[in-house]
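This protein record is not my work; I was only asked to verify it. Would you go through it and say whether the fold makes sense for this chain? Here is the record exactly as it was handed to me.
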Amino acid sequence: MPKSQNMELSVKHSGKTYTIPVTQETTTQAFKDAISQLTRVPTERMKVMVKGKLVKDDTDYVALANQKQAVMVIGAAEALPPPPTQQIVFLEDVGDEGIKSDEPTGLINLGNTCYLNSTLQAIRAVPEVHQALKEFTPSSSPSSSLPEFRVTNSLKNLFVIIDNTPNAVPPLEVISNLRTLAPQFAERDQRGHYAQQDADEAWTQLVQALRAALPKNGEEGSVVDRLMSIELTKTLKNAETEEEPETTSTETVLKLECNISGTTNFLMSGIQDNLNQQVEKTSATLGRNATYSMQSRISRLPEYLVVHMVRFYWRRDIQKKAKIMRKVKFPLELDLSDIVTEPLRKKIQPLNSATKQILKERDARASILKRKPGQGLDEEKKKRDEEKAMVEGLVKEGGLTNGEGSGMYELTAVVTHKGASADSGHYIGWSRVDDGAYVPAEHQRWAKFDDNNVTFTDANKILSMDGGGEDSVAYILLYRAAKI
């Protein structure tokens, strides 16, 4: 796809002139959002005029730039926040060679958008989605103007910038299109500022947009379907009579929920609570409402497992989503073999056992190598090649296909929340930044994405964010299938 034309428009407000880059993809909302970030004039109180007339939704900003038209902005500015500590970079600033360093890139907070920034960093932890966005080309069909396609294209543009600059980037186009797709993200607080939002809801909207817009591959669906879809087989049984036969159905979901009750101490127990529920429905056999036991088990494993820690619930007395502070421990390595269907368990059991044994042995060898730095590296490489060959043999022998992996997963990204409610506080993203192969916990390196501020930590810090107070606590967990 040819590179968007690099143009600039002069914007005048209160005696000052600003320059805003525009492309053929620039929407009026995105243009107003960019003006708002520079002038601090809220978009709903802003009048944007060219030649004395208000701009329209279909205004061609590249044409205006070609005509060297001046844009006038009328509206009162709000108080200035502290400026970002890093230079803001736009797509037009990135040349063909790029200006990227090896360090991860942060995202500018545009005013209560930490929920979005942290979620975007988690999405970037899935390289296959990143690659699919690189290859994404909007078509000329009417569907390309749908909000899902505009969100996907803005993600593509944003990731291009991130890939080519070390400086913090403002996700202006993404937030503008997200607010069009889901107007809840355009809600304002009592002071007229954009309100804080729920990161899980942002994750859901972004992933669903990618699922709809990215190319489909037959029955496999989009890259989102292939990587993240979980097939659940559900068994429904009447708990009040043996005369009614149980029924079985399947459902495809893109994440698991971890319920948190007064007795939940571990991630897996919370997931199991969600998969085993009591429901009330009308019984044709009894001719009245009855209690049913509904048990769900995984019949297709994802390549990437998303777990939503259900930490918020609606409190009528305060009219807010209150936070469940309870400490719930989660592992760096997660075994799902206990919550798959019996046929799938039997099929993956040899690979599951072998993978757990390999990971255990690698941890032991890593402890030895740590005491002897620089020694035994050739032997370790040889051993890993042997382990990989053994795993490939088990996959072939068992006839395992996509969705039938080992059931073992490694934590690769986390979104945390700090504060007392979903619609307040602060979200932070955390991602593994090592080489992708299995790395023992003591050697893992994690990046902390606190909006534009990027620092580094270790796995112990990640595991410590398991709750117990208003400090940062894991809210979204992203696991990937263990790589041998």
